[in-house]
Amino acid sequence: MRDGHGTLVPLFRTMNRLPGGLMLIPLLLGSVIGTFAPGALEIGGFTTALFKDSALPLIALLIFATGTQVTMRTGGPVLATTGVVLLAKSVIPGLLVIALGAVTGADGVLGVSILALLAAATNSNGGLWLAVTGQYGRARDRGAYIAGAINDGPFFALLFLGASGLGEIPFLALLAAVLPFVLGVIVGNVDAKWREVLTPVPNIVIPFFSFSLGTGINLADVAAGGLSGILLGVLLTVVTGGLVYLGYRVLLRRGAESGIGFAAGTTSGNSVATPAIVAAADPSFQQYVGTATSQIAACVLVTAILAPLLATWLLKRSGAADTLAKESAAEQEAAA
């Protein structure tokens, strides 16, 4: 029996009922298929292109589309929010990890190396941030995705390791990550029609690039990360998400809306590759790569589950969830 929208099975609405579900459910499905039936995605053609190799181009499209929604009227708040997210999610955690490393050395603590801590703590899952802020955030929150574009990958890990003379900052790679957003801002302000055309992009591309990212997460690696990886994921959600929450409350003065800051307490799927990239720059870290990679894979899944749940719980507890959901929908409709 179909509902009033002609829907036989409400797949999309069911995914949206779960905080971050638009990204989380495809990510988990991709992980299952990538682990137990990887050959199904290697048949080539459009199937491989869409379901296995689409993550980077679709994320790039999402970054561009998000930029088109940032008008001159919202630019100031977007930059302020982006700055707070970067400070609380990347800079402060990175400094704390480096301070710990000065005491413990590269081995870190409890079997978690400084490499694993930096790779997992200094970046965030931008797709999940967009999924949560698209449901509960304002334009300034969605625009702060640029923080995810900057901190995604090995950039901050190399930056902080570079403070000890290790690694180099890949400036061109950093520029390449930010450029689609900047171009989107320009296009959206020059021609409002593009803003209208690209408004539905998040709902379209998030499930597909999430599935593609999931295919690169082997559940065996997550299991190998064991208890240390799971505990690290819980710790990072609470600590780094809590820092962004404090930034929202103290610096941005968002009051009851500050709970959305916990949506930044995640580890990006791309960070699974960070240990190997760092070791390529400095072979002395090679001994930590295997364990760090498995721990980070666990962090990706644990934080993707906990962060949106915690953010949504706090927003509902503060009474801001319903208001933000309505205002977010109204803002996106007005932007169209």
UniProtKB/TrEMBL annotation:
<keyword id="KW-0813">Transport</keyword>
<dbReference type="InterPro" id="IPR004684">
    <property type="entry name" value="2keto-3dGluconate_permease"/>
</dbReference>
<feature type="transmembrane region" description="Helical">
    <location>
        <begin position="144"/>
        <end position="163"/>
    </location>
</feature>
<keyword id="KW-0769">Symport</keyword>
<dbReference type="GO" id="GO:0016020">
    <property type="term" value="C:membrane"/>
</dbReference>
<keyword id="KW-1003">Cell membrane</keyword>
<feature type="transmembrane region" description="Helical">
    <location>
        <begin position="109"/>
        <end position="132"/>
    </location>
</feature>
<feature type="transmembrane region" description="Helical">
    <location>
        <begin position="169"/>
        <end position="190"/>
    </location>
</feature>
<dbReference type="Pfam" id="PF03812">
    <property type="entry name" value="KdgT"/>
</dbReference>
<feature type="transmembrane region" description="Helical">
    <location>
        <begin position="197"/>
        <end position="220"/>
    </location>
</feature>
<comment type="similarity">
    <text>Belongs to the KdgT transporter family.</text>
</comment>
<protein>
    <submittedName>
        <fullName>2-keto-3-deoxygluconate permease</fullName>
    </submittedName>
</protein>
<feature type="transmembrane region" description="Helical">
    <location>
        <begin position="293"/>
        <end position="315"/>
    </location>
</feature>
<keyword id="KW-1133">Transmembrane helix</keyword>
<feature type="transmembrane region" description="Helical">
    <location>
        <begin position="84"/>
        <end position="103"/>
    </location>
</feature>
<dbReference type="GO" id="GO:0015649">
    <property type="term" value="F:2-keto-3-deoxygluconate:proton symporter activity"/>
</dbReference>
<keyword id="KW-0472">Membrane</keyword>
<feature type="transmembrane region" description="Helical">
    <location>
        <begin position="21"/>
        <end position="43"/>
    </location>
</feature>
<keyword id="KW-0812">Transmembrane</keyword>
<feature type="transmembrane region" description="Helical">
    <location>
        <begin position="226"/>
        <end position="248"/>
    </location>
</feature>
<keyword id="KW-0762">Sugar transport</keyword>
<feature type="transmembrane region" description="Helical">
    <location>
        <begin position="260"/>
        <end position="281"/>
    </location>
</feature>
